[in-house]
Amino acid sequence: MNNQALYQEEILPFQYFESLGDSILYDVYKVSKHPEVKKALEAVWKTLPAYRTLKYKRKACLTNLLCNLIRSLYHRKPIALSFNRNDYSPPKRYSAIYIKYDFLIPMVKEMYKLGWLEMKEGYYERKRSTGKCTRIWATEKLGNLFFSIDPANDITEDYHELVVLNKEVKCGKKSKKVYVDYKDTRFTNQLRSDLRKYNTFMNDVKVEYEPCYESKGENYREGNQNLSIIPFLKEYKPNNVTNIVNNVTNNSNITFPDYNVSNNDTFSLLRWIGAKRRLNSNLHCVFNRGKFSCGGRFYGAGNSYQYIKREKRKTITIDGKKTVELDFHAMHISMLYAEAGIQYNDDPYLAVINNEELRPLLKQLLLTMINAKTKGEAIKAFNWELYRLSNKDNLSPEEEKLLAAFRKYNLDIDRTVDDFKAVHSAIGDSFCSDAGVYLMNRDARIIRQVIMYFIGKEISCLPVHDSVITAEEHEEELKRVMEEAYSQEMNGFTCLVERK
After folding, report:
1. Which of 286, 293, 299 is nearest to 436 (CA)?
2. pLDDT 10s digits, 3-37
3. How far apart are CA 99 and CA 82, in angstroms?
């Protein structure tokens, strides 16, 4: 049997996955402040050689390694880790979280000897130019220290570079986005400083939401108990597993599938349990097309609050307090009118057809026109969005309304595009002219003013592109600050701020 076959067929010690070939790449950005990670860190650290230099960096390296091993348990896949020194390049702008080869690899080998992890060494066949990275995974000894950790909540991403510049490049018939290096200026330094200030403040804030018992497939359920996932094989902790299952299934408030407690595979038993889920609030800023005048909105990472559905955002709490999300009404249309020297106060989406049922469809079309470069591109993008939604499961209420309007009314898209240009003739030239990416740059400046105002007052807030979430008690202040920031950016013009 050759080395490649071993990766597919050999049964290895404590192998809780099906194949070494189905693996997860090692992620240098994973970090965690969970108490069990810290406890495991100290337990492992005591058994390692007594390092004399750079202990804090070595501990950071070990924390990152433990986070990856937790991911391995959770996904039931080994971690693919290169043992090739050439793959550990010096840090650059977008890879400044740097795991040194001389820190990580000796540590992995030592933990293997001590029984903390299992390992299958990689190989390379020069004749065939094929090979596999080394695979690592946690042993029972290490995995039992992670019994209550939920990777989705308790492991986050720590990106060193907070100001990101990218552009699209051709890759065959397709294109892809690549990072662009740049020289720092007063603008980038100040923006990075603001983001660090925001992230540092929000790291001590508990942002949570209620998942509403959604089903995500056979191996995923969410309930309303403050319990954690079971990331390890059942037979090693049978009493704990049985108690947790009984606790959940005996609660009449939970709709839960029938699981076989005697099943040897804990992963098919439970995934996540818990009424509230912790969300990541860290932000970074992304600019597009290799220009700091394009884009610049704030984005989250990992299990960010930005990436849950709109209706779920209504359940977000900040340090246990209920929240409200305020939004600028028709912001980009209002901005275009302001740039033309006109104060616009009407509903731009109903200006063509005054029909509330059609409004979601008309809004989608007008926003597509703002972001498209040509009329043809706008129509193509709009039709693609309709096709995507028509084949999508679990539509949001807004998406359902959009599709319902599309199916009920035989809207002539080509004609409606022309009608929008006519009815908004004062800004018609901005439609289908690629204006969106520049408008995003301006709305990002407005939102930046808002969030830095609140952070300066030590009040938590969460931007979602052109809207902001904060505790209900600060709603009036948030509305005022958003209106003032918009007026300052748009030379005295105003835009309605309302609950989303």
Report:
1. 293
2. 555 555 566 788 888 788 788 888 887 888 888 99
3. 12
Report pLDDT digits (tens) over 66-123: 999 998 988 888 999 989 888 887 667 876 666 888 899 999 999 999 999 999 988 8
Residue for token pair 């300052």: 488
* Whole-number average pLDDT of the chain: 83
Phi, psi (rounded to 5 degrees) for 125: -105, 110
Q: What distance in Å separates the CA atoms of residue 157 and residue 163, rounded to the nearest whole number?
A: 15
Sequence-ordered list of residues with C-beta below 8 angstroms from that of 162, at least 6 positions apart, any chain: 191, 192, 195, 196, 199, 283, 284, 285
14 SS3 class? coil
81 contacts 145 by C-beta, under 8 angstroms: no
pLDDT score at 190: 97
Pick from 450, 446, 487: nearest CA to 343: 487
Ramachandran assignment for 208, one of left (phi > 0), alpha (psi -120 to 50 degrees), beta (any other)? beta
Q: Exposed, middle or buried by CB within 10 Å (0-12, 13-18, 19+), for 456? A: exposed
Unique residue bearing structure tokens 């980038």:
188
What is the amino acid identity at position 372?
A: A
* 278: its two tokens: 């912790």
Higher-pLDDT residue of 238 and 88 is 88
Please state the separation of Cα 484 from the chain's center in Å. 30
- Residue 192 in 3-state DSSP? helix
- 62 by Cβ neighbours in 10 Å (0-12 / 13-18 / 19+) ranks as buried
How many C-beta neighbours within 10 Å does residue 124 have?
Answer: 12
Phi, psi of 280 (to 5 degrees): -85, 135
| 212 within 8 A of 224, measured Cβ to Cβ | no
Q: How many residues does the chain have?
A: 500
Q: Can you tell me which residue has the tokens 């096709």? A: 387
Give CA–CA dist 3/17, Å, rounded: 18
Query: Across-strand partners of 80?
Result: 25, 135
Helix (H) or strand (E) holding 368: helix 359-371
CB burial readout 243-252, b (16+ within 10 A) else e: ebbeebeeee
| Position 377 pLDDT exceeds 80 | yes
What's the token pair of residue 105?
Answer: 């690899």
Structure-token match 């002219």, residue found: 433
CA distance 452 to 295: 19
- For the whole model, what pTM was predicted? 0.68
